[in-house]
Each structure stands twice: as structure tokens, then as C-alpha cells.
Amino acid sequence: MRTLKVDLGDRSYPIYIGSGIRQQKALFSEAIHGKQVMIVTNETVAAHYLEDMVAMLSEDYQVDTCILPDGERYKTLATYEQIMTSLLEAKHNRTTTVIALGGGVVGDMAGFAAATYQRGVPFIQVPTTLLSQVDSSVGGKTGVNHPLGKNMIGAFYQPQAVVIDTDSLNTLPERELSAGMAEVIKYGLICDAPFFTWLENNIDDLMTLDGEKITHAIYESCLAKAKVVAQDEKEGGIRAILNLGHTFGHAIETEMGYGNWLHGEAVAAGTVLAIDLSWRLGNVTETDVARSVALLEKAKLPILPPKGMSRDAFIGRMLLDKKVLDGSLRFVLLKALGEAYVTSDFALDDFNACLDDAIEAAAQAS
Amino acid sequence: MRTLKVDLGDRSYPIYIGSGIRQQKALFSEAIHGKQVMIVTNETVAAHYLEDMVAMLSEDYQVDTCILPDGERYKTLATYEQIMTSLLEAKHNRTTTVIALGGGVVGDMAGFAAATYQRGVPFIQVPTTLLSQVDSSVGGKTGVNHPLGKNMIGAFYQPQAVVIDTDSLNTLPERELSAGMAEVIKYGLICDAPFFTWLENNIDDLMTLDGEKITHAIYESCLAKAKVVAQDEKEGGIRAILNLGHTFGHAIETEMGYGNWLHGEAVAAGTVLAIDLSWRLGNVTETDVARSVALLEKAKLPILPPKGMSRDAFIGRMLLDKKVLDGSLRFVLLKALGEAYVTSDFALDDFNACLDDAIEAAAQAS
User: Fold this and answer.
1) Residue-number span of the structural domain to which A136 is assigned
2) Tell me, what's the pLDDT at A351?
3) Residues A197 and A104 in one domain
4) pLDDT surpasses 90 at A302
5) Residues A63-79: what's their mean pLDDT?
6) Distance between CA A296 and CA A280 in Å, rounded?
7) Statement to judge: residues A272 and A318 lie in one domain
8) Between chains, do A234 and B119 touch, taking CB under 8 Å as contact?
């Protein structure tokens, strides 16, 4: 097992990464201070992992469960209310601990429920997808979608601990493994060129879930994220670099309807757009672009926007993105491979050409 | 105008109290850092105060409004979602400022919306009822009710500023003035015996809204609350004393259905129960009890629980109260007039007798 710490003063917490560690009760006992536990999960994850966890924790705690429907389209206020109702019906008090057992959707919703149940109770993240293990379970962003925008309702709220069991990737569909790999690759692109090179050399082993290598990739990803979050918990500045590809990506997700494109898939296509724009600004070389595209393709990710999505659709969606400050579009771009920055300083012609070329390429693709 | 500061490190904020100050634009400009403002209010308050405020702020900002239905029964997730929809439809970004113009219900909901819109945007409280001026607008508690419990969903979230215009009490129904006075009297009881005596001597002038005296009463109340909140922002300890009468009071409110008994009315009847229990424990004298009851009566507040509410109903409701830790009932009681403490150390016989006597007295009352 490997351990790292997210350093946020009195809101610091440990991240544990290893094979089979969801069955190490001590990792949970350290983080639970009351007598009640509510495990929030979804139907798919429950079938694999819920019974074991309930059995383990029931030895010491009142354990209740809340099983949500599976899918991004259920990441709504209505589902969030269902968690609140479960907590109240089982008479959970302010010392209860919420455990989020599942992917990013479960983690975001259970985290927001924990942040706002009786004005805040502790919670533990047990992310079961690669995406949530390397991204959403670390850093304290919680929330739900609104029909008018993704993640528009939520809070910054840190967990007590994150328990990442790499074994849970064995039951993950390949498409979701790829989606998670988009975020892993992102860390190399934004802040760690050697890690990017390591990924190029090991991507095939990662895609077949080589245990040691997947643990390393998750550890490096969480470490990168933890460093950025420690510097800027509430995204006043540097944290924004974690959103490489996300402004384009959110536009794609929203346009296609939540859940039709996976988050990581939309981010992959968005990342290619961001790198292409970085190249047009003279920041990165054609080789950098080609290497990035090649790595994303090896991870079986889309590198083009959805066929038929117009430039107007992109711009309309992006204007409502949280990263749009006072109406001016700001993007995370690369200064070099392994170094990201945030800017609104680019020529509109370059921006339009970047989008138009990608839209054209998508139209041509079979 | 009088000013005081709630001291919470980088979340500190000023409270301004005075006649007509809702029209002092500088108080708002200091606290608004973006270009957008969303005024959240209700139908009743809007009729009196919205037009002026929109006109004043429109000189400098994009001003949008969200007018909610009036009443505690609308303090729900559905109404909260309506605020979120208004913000999104008017394309408010993360630099917007939410202004809560109204009583406690508006303040709690607008505050919770601000706490969770795009994971948190600034807000300003402009409380228009006495209750919200002396209680809910100060201290950062925000939230909505759930059908299974009052204020069960919410967050601690501090405003940028609180602007208390005493002129807005002129349009307040007398019953709501009384309800607010219950909280004013509470501050005397829990931490300020001289203020309690001052209230006894000035209650008649306060009930007729003598300007100087009402400003003094609000100032002393906010000062008392600010001191307690500065010591214990998230109610880990001392802050609980602010809940004198509230455990009984919430049981009454919930049992009667939200909004049928005003919060302050339920707190008044609950306060009498708490003082009576304090007397049974030998903490306060019969004279203290009589003085408290007399002052509450002069403020035209109920001093008995609702006719027909049984002991079982009280206990059942109280077991789900947020202040019940791990199933043991804890109460805020008086050690002396002007000094509160939190305890679960009381004989069940005393507790039962306290409730039974009050229930009996309520049954006898005409």
C-alpha cells in the first residue's frame, strides 16, 4: 500500500492506494469518529462490493446503505435529496460518517450530501473507477448537475480519507478505464513531462491493468493533484490548470447530453483542442501535439469532437462554464509539454481555426 | 448608524445597524466585487423594498431578482432550486453577489444558494424582520427544511456584510415583532443579565418601535451572538447556548407543521420549558422563572406548549433534533439568569414533570 497526504491545514487527509485495501478495516476506523455510517453507492457497484463492506463495518457501527441508480444523468438534486431522506429515515445524527463507494458521480453526490447534511458531517471516499481514483475523489469538489449546467450546484468539502483499492478496476468496463486514463495523461501534460514519457512507455501495460504500474500511475496522479490543491484549495488561481481540456470538454458533454459522452472522453477530445490551440500560439511543437494525440489514441480515447457539433454550439456552451469570468473566455493551455497556464490571451482567429479544423476533421472521420 | 464586526479571521464581516441604511449604496459597494448582483426576496418584502434597491444598484451592476413565495413552508429544496435556476438563466458567474432581502427564510435559502452556487459565491444579508436581524442573519447558518426535519439540509457560510435597516420593522406584522423579541430576550437570559434587566424596563417602548431603543436592542443582540460565533463558528461547543429553548421549540414547530407556529413563538414556549427545567435542577429561583415568563408575556409571546401536544410527541420529535448526539438528549439550560450551559445531566423524572406540568397547564388554558 502507498500513502500520501493532501496538505490543507486542519482539513488535511490521507490517500491510501493499494490492492485489496477496501478490506482493511483500520483505514476506516481511523477516520470514523461516531457510531453511525451511511454507505452511498450505486446499483452496479453495490453488486460487486457493498456486501463485504457492510459486513466489515457492521461489526463496529450502525451501518445503513443508500443505493442510487447508476449514471451521470442521475447526478441531480432529486437524487441528492434521496440521500438526505435515507440519512433522516435512519435517524443519522451530526456524528455520522458518509462513505462514498463508487465512481465520480457517487463521490460528488455523496460528498455534497455530507457537506450539507445537518450543515456538514464527515465522509470517506472509496473511489472504484480510475477516473474517480485519480481525479474527483481528491480535492474536495462535490456537487450535482443542473439542467442548465454541469456541476453548477455544489461545495468545496474535504473528505476524512480516500481509500483507493486498485482491485476494483478489475470490474471496470474498458471504456471507463480509458476515460480515467484521460485524466492520468492530463497530469503528465500539465505538470510532469517525465511522467508523460513514462506513460508513453507503459500505456499498453496500464491498459491491461498491470498491478504495479497502475498503482504507480494512480500515485503520481494523486500526488500531482494533491500538490496543486494544497496550493489553491478553492480554485482562485493555480488549481485551474487541472481543467486542461475541460472547458471544451464540458461543452461537449453538455451538448451531447450528460452521460452520452463519458467525462474522460469529452476531456480527451477537449485536451486535443487545447493542445492544438497551444501549438497555434507557438507554445508547443508539432511533435508535442502528435505525441499527445498518439498517447490518447493508445488509451482508446476520442481525439476529435462529436460529429456535427458546430462552433456556435461550442461557444454557446462555454459562455456558461464556471471558468468564464465576467464573460471573457479563459483557457488552460500548455506553455510546453509538462507545463500548463491559464490565459484569455489568444487571437480569435486562432481560436476559430482550432475549432473549425477539428469540426472539419470530425466530419471527415468515418 | 452603529457598526460591529463578527471576528472570524479571513471570514470576518461587518454588521451595520441604523435607520434608512438600506439606501446607503457605499455599504453595498464595499462588499460587491463583481459586476453581477442577484437580489433574492419574497413577494411581501418585494412590494415594500425591492424597487428602491434595484434602482440604486442598477446604476453600477447587472441586477437580477428572484422573488420567492412568502412563508416557512416554502423553505424547501424546490424553492432553493428556483434560486439556482434564476442565477443560471441570467448567466451569473462565480463573481456574482447574492443579496438576501427579507426575513430568516429568505436569508437561510439565499445564503444556502450562495454557499452552493458554483461551489460558493459572495452574499450580503439585508434582514427585514426583527428575528432575522438579531439571529439568523448573523453567524453563517444557511439551509432549507426537509419534510423529516427542520434545517436538516444546509451549510455554514458567512456573508460579506449584514445591513440592518431598522426602518423595515415599520412594515412588520406585530406577531412577527414578538417572535423576534423572543430571540432578543434569549440573549439576556443566556449571557447578559444587565441586558435582561434593561429589556424588562424597556419592553413597552420596544414593542412600539422606539427607534433608539430598538437599535440598542438589536446592537446588543448581534454583539452577543457575534461574540459566541467568533468563539465557535461551527457549533462544536459554546455556540450551542444560542439554542436555549430551541430543542423544545423545534419539536413544537415540527409537530404543528412549519409556519403554523412562528419560530420565535415556538422558541418562547420552549424557553419557558428550559427555564422551568433549570429551576427543577435548582439552578435558578422561582423569581427568575416568574421574571422570564412575565417578560415573554409582555412581548406577547406564548409561554405554554400547543394544547394537545403530548410528551411522546415532544420526545419523538426531539430525538431527531440535530442537537441530539448519539441518541442522548442534551439541553441548553440556565445555570443562573444570564448564564447558560449545555447538559445531558438531569433526572428523567424532572424532565417528565417539566413537560407534564406544561402540557397540563396548556390543557387548562382557555
Assistant:
1) 2-171
2) 93
3) no
4) yes
5) 95
6) 20
7) yes
8) yes
pLDDT at B91 over 80: yes
In chain A, residues with a C-beta closer than 8 Å to the C-beta of B112 are: 116
In angstroms, the separation between the Cα of residue A323 and the nearest Cα of chain B is 8
* Nearest CA-CA distance, residue A30 and chain B, Å: 19
Give me the CATH number covering residue A113: 3.40.50.1970
At which of B138, B171, B204 does a domain end? B171
Pairwise CB contact (< 8 Å): B93 & A155: no
C-alpha cell at A16: 491510501
Q: How many CB pairs under 8 A join A and B?
A: 98
Task: Examine the domain organization and report whether A71 and A180 are in the same domain.
Answer: no
> Could you list the active site residues of A?
119, 141, 183, 225, 235, 239, 243, 246, 250, 263
Phi-psi region for residue A140, left (φ > 0), alpha (ψ -120 to 50) or beta?
A: left
| Enzyme catalytic residues of B | 119, 141, 183, 225, 235, 239, 243, 246, 250, 263
Contact A106, A42 (CB under 8 A): yes
Q: Do B137 and B253 sit in the same domain of this protein?
A: no
Residue A77 is predicted with a pLDDT of 97
C-alpha cell at B260: 403554523
Do the annotations mark residue B216 as ligand-binding? no
- Measured between CA atoms, how close is A168 to chain B, in angstroms? 30
User: Any known ligand binding at B141?
Assistant: yes
Angle B362-B284-B341 from CA coordinates, rounded to 5°: 95
- B163 and B214 inside one domain: no
The answer to whether A5 is a known ligand-binding residue is no
- Of A171, A206, A228, the domain-final residue: A171
Question: Which of A93, A153, A234 is nearest residue B116 as measured by Cβ atoms?
Answer: A153
Which pLDDT value is given to residue A318?
Answer: 86
**Closest residue on chain B to A96 (Cα):** B326
pLDDT for the residue B322: 59
Q: Tell me the pLDDT of chain B averaged across its residues.
A: 94
CATH number at residue B184: 1.20.1090.10
Which ipTM was obtained for this model?
A: 0.88
Given pLDDT bands bounded at 50, 70 and 90, which one contains residue B238? confident
Q: Are residues B196 and B342 in the same domain?
A: yes
B77-89 and A77-89 helices, crossing angle to 10°: 160
On whether both B333 and B217 belong to a single domain, the answer is yes
Q: Are residues A15 and A136 in the same domain?
A: yes
Q: How many structural domains compose chain A?
A: 2
pLDDT in tens, B148-180: 888 999 999 999 999 999 999 999 999 999 999
Lowest mean pLDDT among A173-177, A190-194, A252-256, B279-283: A252-256
Q: Which DSSP category does B209 fall into?
A: T
